[in-house]
Amino acid sequence: MACPRCDGTHWVCESHPERPWDGPNACGCGAAGDPCPDCNDAAPGDMPLLPKGLDHTITSIEAMRPLVRTSAGKPRRKPIK
Ligand SMILES: [Zn+2]
Ligand SMILES: [Zn+2]
Predict the structure, then answer these.
(1) How remote is the CA of residue 74 from the centroid of ligand 2, in Å?
(2) Where are the alpha helices (DSSP H) in the chain?
(3) Residue 57 Cα to ligand 1 middle (Å)
(4) In a domain, 49, yes or no
(5) Alpha-carbon torsion 23, 29, 71, 73, what sign?
(6) Domain that holds residue 13
(7) How far apart are the CA of 79 and the centre of ligand 1, in A?
(8) Which of 14, 18, 19, 69 has minimal Cβ neighbours within 10 Å of its Cβ?
(9) Looking at residues 2-6, what average pLDDT do you find?
(10) Which stretches of the chain are assigned E, i.e. beta strand?
(11) pLDDT cut 70: percent of the chain above it
């Protein structure tokens, strides 16, 4: 059964952490994504499951952060794909 919090996508909206960031029921408000605290709660230094559409060669949360949040700290829209 898929995680109800993130709808099984493993990512939630950073601004609305009770709503999925990806998938058919995605929040879509344009905020950055965060790993779902219920099913994708990676320890510091561990790699959370990546949302679809992000580069799977990324190997650390630090390397991935710029993809979900711009360097200016502004949220980036979710990748199209
Ligand atoms: Zn949202
Ligand atoms: Zn979840």
Answers:
(1) 24
(2) 61-68
(3) 27
(4) yes
(5) negative
(6) 1-72
(7) 15
(8) 18
(9) 93
(10) 11-13, 33-35
(11) 63
Q: Does residue 15 fall inside a structural domain?
A: yes
Q: Give residue 75 CA to ligand 2 midpoint distance, Å.
A: 20
What is the number of domains present in the chain?
1
pLDDT(20) > 80: yes
In this prediction, residue 13 carries a pLDDT of 92
Smallest-distance ligand from the CA of 37? 2
Tell me the residues surrounding ligand 1 (ion) with CB < 5 Å. 13, 15-16, 27, 29, 31
Tokens of 65: 């952060």
Is residue 29 one of the residues assigned to a domain? Answer: yes
Asked if pLDDT for residue 16 goes beyond 90, the answer is yes
- Per-residue pLDDT reduced to its tens digit, 24-63: 899 999 888 888 999 988 777 777 787 766 655 656 666 6
CA of 31 to the centre of ligand 1 (A): 6
